[in-house]
Amino acid sequence: MTKILMTSVRDDEQTAIKAFEKEHNVDITTTPKLIDDAVDMTAGMDGLVIQQRSKVDPAVYPKLKANGLKQIATRTAGFDMVDIQKAHENGLIVTNVPAYSPRSVAEHALMQIFRLLRKSYRFDSQVAQNDFRWFSDEQALEIHTATIGIIGVGRIGGTLAKLLNALGAHVLGFDVKPREEMKGTVDYVSKEELLKQSDVISLHVDLNPTSTGLITAKDMALMKPTAGLVNASRGPVVVTADLIDALKKKEIAAAALDTFEGEQKVVMTDRREKGLDDVPLIKELHEMDNVILTPHIAFFTNLAVKNMVDFSLEDVLTVLAGKKSPHEVQPEK
């Protein structure tokens, strides 16, 4: 019987894991540990599925090779936590789950767009202080009168564009590879025009060398002072120090961040006693009344979790059968 180890497993994933185990007649061992701390558990295993919040320790790859593994499946869309070159040097094929549920992240972004347009962050702060007044500068935009800019009109960005279009919003898009089928739903413009015209900008790009630091002080200076920014892609896409500065200077109005630089130090941790002093930029964002922070949960829906489990495990079986997975990640040339 094929034996598979899954690391960083949460309780909410167990139902899907057990269903897959029964359907495919495989033996799946799960652990809440990261692969860095569970590498010895791969002895005697045929396959490996991981989920990382930090980069895999370089020492892991040769240990996996020594234990006879041939692959690593990450049950996430992002694979920047895995050193693809190092994996290949150790004979390990890497796969990811590029489209576990575009709707899950798109719906989260839509919710945050509504929150920014309706300025709910202001009212949340005021009501928490027992202040039930409202003020002239808190007047909202109805979404069908708003212009929403999407940077990265791929699976997730394209899904969001369709939702926004159905609600009557004017949708602008910027993508290095505009999709012909999205024309009519999205008006493709330059990045600069999108920044200038949008009432809210939503980011949906992969993390790669060209998207790291994609939104800087220069970009935010082009935005409307009433505009909001949503980041449900990856933290390093936005330069955090520049974002904080732009918010303080009122160059932009607000931000809703599901991903942010340094999140690996705080996501899935209990900071109620420790606080955030060791992560000063995150602490500053957390203390701002015009910033909405969520702990990288845009993906966290019933369908997305099931698909992340199923697709990653299917890739394990595909690779072990000597077949090529369509989700195989190649090292950069």
UniProtKB/TrEMBL annotation:
Q: Give the top-rank taxon of the lineage listed in the UniProt record for this protein.
A: Bacteria
User: Where's the D-isomer specific 2-hydroxyacid dehydrogenase catalytic domain?
Assistant: 13-329
User: Is this entry keyworded Acyltransferase?
Assistant: no
Q: Name one GO molecular function term.
A: D-lactate dehydrogenase (NAD+) activity
User: InterPro entries per the record?
Assistant: D-isomer_2_OHA_DH_cat_dom, D-isomer_DH_CS1, D-isomer_DH_NAD-bd, D-LDH-like, NAD(P)-bd_dom_sf
Transmembrane stretches, by residue range? none
Which one Pfam family would you cite for this protein? 2-Hacid_dh_C
- Domain D-isomer specific 2-hydroxyacid dehydrogenase NAD-binding as annotated: residue spans: 110-298
The protein's UniProt keywords, in alphabetical order, are: NAD, Oxidoreductase
Gene3D superfamilies to which the protein is assigned, alphabetical? NAD(P)-binding Rossmann-like Domain
Its family remark reads: Belongs to the D-isomer specific 2-hydroxyacid dehydrogenase family.
The record, for PANTHER family, names: 2-HYDROXYACID DEHYDROGENASE HOMOLOG 1-RELATED
Official protein name in the record: D-lactate dehydrogenase
* Organism, as annotated: Limosilactobacillus panis DSM 6035
